[in-house]
Amino acid sequence: MTPEAGKPWPRLLLGSLIFGVGAWLLFSFRDRYVVLLLAGALLAWQALPAGFKTRALLLSAAACLLDLAVSGLGLYRLVGVGGLPLWRVVLWLSFSCWWLWLLAVWRPSPRLLALVGALAGPLLCWCGLQLRALQAGAPLWLTLLALAPLWAALLAWTPRLLPMDQGSAAQA
C-alpha cells in the first residue's frame, strides 16, 4: 500500500523508524555494522532532492564539529578510533538526511526546535553513555547541562538550511 501523494506522513514515519533502528545499531555495535550503515546513509543522502544534498553535508559537518568541541572540552569521549569515529560521522549523516527531510514537511517554530534540542540532546547523550558508545569525562549533570543549550542552538538553526522553494522539496 503506497501513501497518497498529498500525505507524506506514512513515509516520514517509516523513515523515522529506519533512522531510529540505524541509530540504535550504531550506538550499540558502533564499528561492527558501520560499513552497512554507511551504505544506507549514502543511499539516503543520494535520495535527497538536489537542493538538500549540500545542506545535509553542511548540517553533518556542523554536528561533527559540535561533537569535536564537546569531546575537546572533556565532557565525554566517543568510543572508537580517533577523535571522531566513523560510526559517529555515519550517525550524523543519517540524522542530517532524515532531519532535513522531516523539516521539509513539518515546519515548527525555531522555539519549538530549540526545546526539542534541549531535551533530545541530553537524552541521547545519556543513552550513549548507557550503551557505552560514550565515556564520561565530566560529571553527568554537567555534561547534560552543557549539552542542552548546544543542541537547542543546533536544532533551532536547522530550518535556515532549507531551500526557499518548499513546493518541490515537500513532495520528495
What percentage of amino acids are in beta strands? under 5%
Based on CA atoms alone, the radius of gyration comes out at 16 Å
* Overall geometric form: globular
Mean of pLDDT: 84
Strand order of the largest sheet: 1-2
The total count of helices amounts to 7
Q: Tell me about the largest β-sheet.
A: 2 strands, antiparallel
Q: Find the structural class using helix and strand composition.
A: mainly alpha
What is the CA-CA span between the terminal residues? 18 Å
How many strand segments?
2
Instruction: Summarize the helix and strand pattern as letters.
Output: HHHEHHEHH
Low-confidence stretches: 167-172
Q: Level of helix content?
A: over 70%
Structure, briefly:
By secondary structure, this protein is mainly alpha-helical. Helices cover about 70% and strands about 5% of the residues.
